[in-house]
Each structure stands twice: as C-alpha cells, then as structure tokens.
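Study this one:
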Amino acid sequence: MATFARPENALKRAEELINVEQKQEALEALHSFITSRRYRAWTRTHEKIMFKYVELCVDMRRGRHAKDGLIQYRGICQHVNISSLEEVIKHFMQLATEKAENARNQGQASEEALDIDDLEADKRPEDLMLSYVSGEKGKDRSDRELVTPWFKFLWETYRTVLDILRNNSRLEALYAMTAHRAFQFCKQYKRTTEFRRLCEIIRNHLANLNKYRDQRDRPDLTAPESLQLYLDTRFEQLKVATELELWQEAFRSIEDIHGLMTMVKKTPKPSLMVVYYSKLSEIFWMSNNHLYHAYAWLKLFSLQKSFNKNLTQKDLQLIASSVVLAALSVPPYDRSYGASHLELENEKERSFRVANLIAFDVESKPENREVLSRSSLLLDLVAKGVMNCVTQEVKDLFHILEHEFLPLDLALQVQSLLTKISKLGGKLASASSVPEVQLSQYVPSLEKLAALRLLQRVSQVYQTMSIDNLSKIIPFFDFPIVEKISVDAVKNNFLTMKLDYRQGAIFFGNKSLESEGLRDHLSVFAESLSKSRAMIYHPVKRISKLGQISDLMEVVEKEHKRLLARKSIIEKRKEEQERHLLEMEREEEAKRLKLQKITEEAEQKRLASEFQQMKNQRILREIEERELEEAQALLQEAEKRSKKKGKKPVLEGEKITKQTLIDMAASEQHREKLEMEKKLKKLSKTMDYLERAKREEAAPLIDAAFQQRLAEEEALHKIEQQREIDVSRRRHAGDLEEKRRLGKMLEHKVFIFNL
C-alpha cells in the first residue's frame, strides 16, 4: 500500500503512471489513498483525485472499485461539502453514458444488439460454445461483444449511484434524477428485467426509510419538496411501466403511489391524479376488469370537469361517453355465484383493496368502505351528471340496453348505434394527460351485453324459440359464440335456458310462480290492473281518521328530521374533536422534530469544532515530526561522510537540539557544495585540454577525407553526364524515325482535306 505525504503527491503519481500506460497501478494507488484513514480531512485536491479515480474506473470498467471509492468519499465530505460528492457522481454517470453511446455508435449497433435477458447475469459455458458454433455473422458478434459490456457497466453505474444516494436528505434531487435516467435507459432499450429490478430497489429504499426512522440525514417525507420528488419518481415509474407493457409492475407502482400518500396523509395535485387515474384505467382495461376500469374513468371525468378549465365541450362529451360505455361494458351479473366462502372472502378483500386505490382515500376506515358494483356505478352516472354530457347515440344506447323492453328489435337498434359510436374518438386537445379515447374498443363488450339483454328479454316472453330465429335476431355473432355467452350467463345464474340440437330449439327456464321473471310480471300486471280499476271506479271519499294519520305522519317526519339533524351535529362534533386531536399531535410532532433538529445541529457543530481542533493538532505534530526526521537524516549522512574521511562526530546525539541539527546539516551541505564546485572546475579544465588535442589530431584526417570525397564526386558526375548524352541521342534517333514514318501519310492528309 503506497503512502503519500500530501494528497497532491498521490494525484501526481497517478498521472505519471497513466502517462506510461500503467492504469492498473494508478487505480490501485488512488484507491489506497481514498480508503486510507490518514487522509479523512476533505480538501479541494480530494475532489480532483475522485474525478481522476472515476475516470480510471470507467475506462477500465471497474464498477466495484468505483462503488467502494464513492462510499469512502461520501464519508469524507458528508458533513463538509456534500456538493462535491454530487459533482463527482454526475461526472461518473456522464462518463459511463458517453462510453456506452460511443460503443454503440462505433459498432453501428441498434437496440437489438442488447438481446440478452439479464445484464447482471454472467456468461454460461454453453452460451460461449453456442456463440462459436452458431451461424451468427462476425460483425454482429463483434458489435455485441463491444456494446454489451459497456451497457452492463452503465446499468451497474445506475445501481451503484442509487445505493450510495439512498435515504440522504441532502441529495434527494440527484437521487430522483438518477432514477429518472435509469427509467429512460430501461425504456429506450426495452430492458424489462432491469426495470423490474430497479422498481424493487426503489421500493426497498422507501421501506428502509420507514423502518429506520432514527437514521441520521433521513429525508423528511412531510416536507413538500421531498414528497414531490418521491411522487415524481413514482409517476415516472408508472409511465415507463405502461409504455413497456409491464402491467403487473404498473399496478404495483399504483400501489406504491397510494401507499406513499397514505403514509404522509396527503392527496397529490389534480394534475398528478389525472395521470394516476388514466394509467389505472389502462391497467384495468388490459386485465379485463371492466368494472374497475369504468370506476377509474368516472374519477377521471370528475377531475377533468372540476379542475381542467381549458376543457372543451367536445372533449368533455368524449370523456363522458367513454365513462358510460365503460360502465355498460361491465357484465350484468356477478361471477361469485356458486363460489366457496373462502373465495368470497378473498374476493371481498380484493374488492376493498381496489376500492381504496380508486377512491384514493388516504385515511380509509373499514366503516367507510364502499362496495363497487355495476348497479351503484350506473346510479353514480346519473347522480354526477355524466348522462347530461354524453352524445345522443350513447344516451340512446344506454336507454335501450338498460330500460326499454324490446325482445326482438333490440339487437338491430343497438347495431346501428354501435356503427355510429365506433367512428367517434381521437386525441383530446385540452387534456394532454388523458390517453387517446377510442370508443370502438368498447364495441365487442357492448355487443356481448346486447346479446345478453336480448336473451334475457326473450326468456321473459317466450318459452321456446328455434335456433335459426335466435341467430337471425342476433346479428353480432355466430351461434357458437352466442352459445358460449349463454353458457357463461347460465353458469352465473343470470339466465335459465336449455339447448336441444336434435329439435333445433332453445327452451327457456321454469316459469313457475316462484320464478323471479314471472313474479316481476305478475307484480307489474297487478299494478296495471289497480290503476285501471281506479280509473273506471273512482274511490268513494270517506270521513275517517286519515287526517289524524296525516298529522301523525307529519310529526313522525319532523321527529325523523330532528334526529337526523342531531346525528349530523354529533358527527360534526366528533369530526371536529378528531381534527383537534390530530392537530395537537401534529404540533407536538413538529415541536419534537424542531427540538431534535436543534440538538442535532448543536451536536454537529461540536463534532465539527472537535474535528477541526484535532486536525490542526495532528497537522502541527506531523510537521514537527517531519522536520525532526529530515534533520536527523541529514546528520546521519554527514556523520557517515565524516567517518569515511577519518573525522570524528562533532557532537553526541543526546546533546544535540533540533536547531543545532539543522545548522550542522546546513553547514555540512555548504562545505560539500564548495568541494564539489572545485572538483567540477578541475574536471572541466581536463576535458578542455583533451578536446583540443583530439581536434588537432583530427584536422589533417578531415582534409584528406574531403579531398577524396571531391575526386569521387567528380568521377561520378562525368559518368552521369555521359549517360545522359547517350540517352538523348537514342531519343533523337527514335524521333527522326517516327517523323519519317509519319511523313509517308502527308499526301493522304492533303488529299483528304482537299475533298
């Protein structure tokens, strides 16, 4: 392990090793300096050393060295200059990103080059063998070998930075930025495995934050800035999950957002809630949960109508139509028929859990739980004014499917309306956070609902119907699909019917007096007969105690209203008392946090002052020890030289002080300098005489060599001149011969030009 007197020496040594292409030794030298306990006081040189250290780690793809060094540097500058750690980490990520992009551009590889399942998995022996014997092109293989290691290192960089910055209140913004960049990396290169792992990492960080509440420098989620950063990270996670079509991970992101807001007892901004419900509706649609999908659309409609001031009437109408069609797409029967008690309990708990996500109630109580159902959803559509905003086609469709009794013409009327509705939709200009609305996606579910309603109406009118007639009045599907729909409805106790292929007929259920369909018809028939009788035979007015009864009814009504008012007053008082207790608890918590903060600040100041004092004492002690060691070394060298010359030591070591040692060492150095100057002067005179003698001896030899060189060059010149003359004569003779040959054609040339 190398030791350095100053941090500048370590940096200089590393640069020297880099210049001679010894990067491994330079990295080890800087690593030993960073991990040493001797250099724990932060200076500006430490930051330069870390810049050089991360550059070497990136060039050599040493992720573990980088993580170890950054952890050590975090301990050095945590309480002194935390912005230095931020700059080093930004530089580290920038270098890793640039290297990965350069490798991808150099190899001219696309995202398909990253076709490995897991960037953290090592190569197996069988994969290496297959890569050599497979028919893969050499260029593709070289691209993969060039690009994949750098992207593995980039992914390792994101993980390292997130692990270092986790649960640090001073670097929350950098943590959020790193998480966003990691999400974009997974999105750009379709890295689903890494995205799942990244979500789990961030989820564990938040869990540890809640688990260890007494941790120092812990982020305070009640602060608006911290909460907004955590929320933005979760919403970015939700968006990327839906774009990568990881619906399970997207649902877990929804639960993360709800859990985070439940933890701090606050509700996000309406703009974020719009994104929340839009993604939630998309998740439920992909999972075929039409009921929850419709509830999410209803919440989205309420938010847009209440908070979006730029919402146009056309966009509002389109959103309202989507809400109504989504509600109609919900199957009209409950699938829990015939389920066991355990299954019913599990489904009930699951329904309550999803209801909390949809209602976004941060203070959910068991008594306030709302049961989600199709009937309550349709009532909410009317109560919240959704039906007043929809298009006329959607309104007619809702009326036909839910209210009108058209056993034979229902399918034909619905088909014409669905044809018009399927052409509606598009991108909402005034609601950018809402996904593109396409009403055509609800057409298959509405056709199924229309078939169910038609079967229900027909079963109430007919006891028997041929298969051919039923196929004619349901133009949406072929009869095998209608049969499948009927089987599902019979299974869930929505219809009672039998199918006989031998007779080619359908037999509808038991029409006894106990059947629900006949019971409804009899009650309607009885009400109609009662009205008809009242119209024919007017009732005779009798003097009775009806007046007293009416007075009694008024008293009962007033008493009922009084009790209701008293109940509301009691509820308000309870709520006010609970609110007051909650405010008192919050005030006490704020006082406790303030006192804790003051105590921590005082402790930090005391530790900083003690650290500075110890640092100054250590520096002074090191300076004195270094000076004494240098003086003793100089004295020992002087004693050795004096012993070689036969001289005795000047003084004994025990009687020598520090200043005496320094003076003796200086005088000895001055004496040696004078002796060395005399030796050099004598040596220079000797060299001068020697050089003069050498030149006197070499002068005649140089003249003889020069004369010989002149004679040789003169002979060579004559030979070259004669050779040039011979070449010129041969060229001239050849030219004359060519002239005589071409002169024979002169007569022909003149003849041709005279034609």
Q: What stands out?
A: Residues 109-113, 132-139, 648-655 have pLDDT under 50 and may be disordered. The chain is about 75% helix and 0% strand. Residues 546-644 form the longest helix (99 residues).
